[in-house]
Amino acid sequence: MTFGIDDLPVRDELRGKSPYGAPQLDVPVRLNTNENPYPLPEALVERIAERVREAARDLNRYPDRDAVELRTGLAAYLTHTSGHPLDVSNVWAANGSNEVIQQLLQAFGGPGRTAIGFEPSYSMHGLIARGTGTGWISGPRHDDFTIDVPAAEKAIAEHRPDVVFITTPNNPTGNAVPAETVLALHDAAQTAKPTMVVVDEAYIEFSHGASLLPLLDGRPHLVVSRTMSKAFGAAGLRLGYLAAHPAVVDAVQLVRLPYHLSAVTQATALAALEHTDTLLKYVEQLKAERDRLVAELRAIGYEVTESDANFVQFGRFADSHETWRQILDRGVLVRDNGVPGWLRVTAGTPQENDAFLDAVREVKKEQN
Ligand code: PMP
Question: Phi/psi at 30 (nearest 5 deg)?
């Protein structure tokens, strides 16, 4: 017997749990982690090199702890794209929106407190809750993956969570959550006690609809989280951010590690923001490809969940893991999120999507 995790005095709530583990397999077509398939444009790569070179001259010093220039740039981006005015005091940034979520749970969750999400949804909400000692409550959805509002309100009334997560567009299902649903759950959550409501908009740039940022007006318990991993095509950068009332920004500063955002990260993200318009053009191409995937999958005879994201959930399969394997055997990696009967494919380049569609056409024939 080799010495393993179970032989270490790990916290009880971590025993028997698996780490986040999307397979990173070396196959020709990888459409499994909702990345943007387009490499950054060369002009942006050059600008990153310039900005990082400048930053390197000061690497003997700690970075700007409050990332003021970057947060100002992110606030300008949000204001420009949503029409809802925000400034540096409303925005906080961290290493990926995963870290933003962790800081929110460190500040508003923790031992003796609970958070709720409506599942299937982004599995890291529950995992980060566990990692911060926050109890996790799995809330309900309808069979078509929309949020069952009366059931969700009932779950909130019963469990009185301290944090409510709403992911829109939702991952892995792809559907967006209507503003009325978010408002209903926000209001339900405030009846028993003040409760933070985190709207995870990681994929909002790909949506047919608008961001919920305007709902922040007059709602100090609402938080919108965002990322540069998807629309900005910069998953490798690790830059996530939130928009909220300035008091929320003050609260997360109580738990952030000092100098958590490196000078290199800040410089790179600032360079990416300078190229927003070009990057958003790729988003338009990906939206068209996403819509093509939905239409072609339906034409092949699959069921598809409405998608407002850069990925599509399709089914139904008697054995989704076996189907995942059959698609992989054809050189295409999609994602089995453990939603029984369904798989998820990320919109790639037109060539990658064609390879995927050829693979699932063959699989469909085999299964018929
Ligand atoms: N939220 C959702 C809904 C996601 O799907 C992801 C990434 N898959 C994240 C947050 C985290 O993204 P990142 O840490 O790269 O910003």
Answer: -110, 105
Instruction: Give the residue whose CA is nearest to atom 6 of ligand 1.
Output: 202
Relative to the CA of 229, which ligand 1 atom is closest? 15
DSSP per-residue codes, 281-294? HHHHHHHHHHHHHH
Q: Ligand 1: distance of its center to the CA of 291 in Å? A: 21
Ligand 1 midpoint to CA 217 (Å):
25
pTM, two decimals, is 0.95
State the burial class of residue 149 (Cβ atoms within 10 Å of its Cβ: 0-12, 13-18, 19+): middle
Ligand 1 atom at minimum distance from 227 CA: 16
Note down pLDDT in tens along the chain; length 368 residues: 689 888 999 988 888 887 776 677 889 999 999 999 999 999 999 999 999 999 999 999 999 999 999 999 999 999 999 999 999 999 999 999 999 999 999 999 999 999 999 999 999 999 999 999 999 999 999 999 999 999 999 999 999 999 999 999 999 999 999 999 999 999 999 998 999 999 999 999 999 999 999 999 999 999 999 999 999 999 999 999 999 999 999 999 999 999 999 999 999 999 999 999 999 999 999 999 999 999 999 999 999 999 999 999 999 999 999 999 999 999 999 999 999 999 999 999 999 999 999 999 999 999 88
Identical topology for domains 5-41+277-367 and 51-275? no
Q: Which CATH architecture has domain 51-275?
A: 3-Layer(aba) Sandwich (3.40)
